[in-house]
Amino acid sequence: MSATWYECKVKYRKLDEVTGEQKLKTEPFLVDAISYTEAETRITQEMAAYLREGEEIKITNIKVANYAEIHPFENSDRWFKCKVSMISFDEESGKERKSNQYLLIQGNDVKEAYENTMTAMKDTMAEYTIPAIAESPIMDVFPYFSGEESEMKNIEKFIALKDSVPTTNEINEDLAMVDSLSTEVE
Question: What pTM was computed for the model?
Answer without folding.
Answer: 0.74
